[in-house]
Amino acid sequence: MTTITIPPNTKQILLQNKPESRTITLKKDSHLEYIMSFKNSHPEEKSIVTFELDEENAHVEIFGLFTGKDSDSIKFETRTIHKADNTYGHTTVRTMLKDGAVSDYFGLIRIEKNTKGTDGHLSHDAMLLSKQAKSKSVPSLEIEANDVKAGHSASVGQVDEEAVFYLRSRGLSENQARELMIEGFFEELLGKISDENTAQRVRTQLHQSLN
After folding, report:
1. How many other C-beta atoms are found inside a 10 Å radius of the C-beta of residue 82?
2. Spatial separation of the C-alpha atoms in residues 76 and 105, rounded to whole Å
3. In this predicted model, what pLDDT tens digit does every residue of 170-206 receive, in sequence order?
């Protein structure tokens, strides 16, 4: 287990590109952009990353971008714990699977007693490129305070065939159209990463891992 502390009044970007469990503590007025993109080395391996928003105005944006092919297994968990007033924690995860790949994601938002002004949200969207691929998503909210914003969403879908047909009508081949749809699935999230070098590194990794 790795422990990391984000000091008061600092901004950081962290990229986790290998499976590992971590606990990250955010102090007052700290801001963290956290990007997760990795594959497990064996089927039973699971990464658990806990974010403790320990002091007032701690802010974390969590971006998860995952791909799987063949018999890949991706198991991971995020826990965002709001312990102080006016904390912000948003988690956005996108997973794309093909062949017989599977993913299993559990996401927790916990807002503790006597906190106010907190804002927590979690969303997970999965795109399946084969009938054998499977994605499981379990979002969980534990709210012990009243003056808060909290929510979650999850969806599982396939490539939009109408969009593929439209792109083919514009002169693209079927493979080109599908490739463009796949790139678009991640591009919105990649565009939210503030450091372009980090975004490009993840973009390249995602492209290589599906081919």
Report:
1. 29
2. 5
3. 888 877 777 777 778 899 999 999 999 999 999 988 8
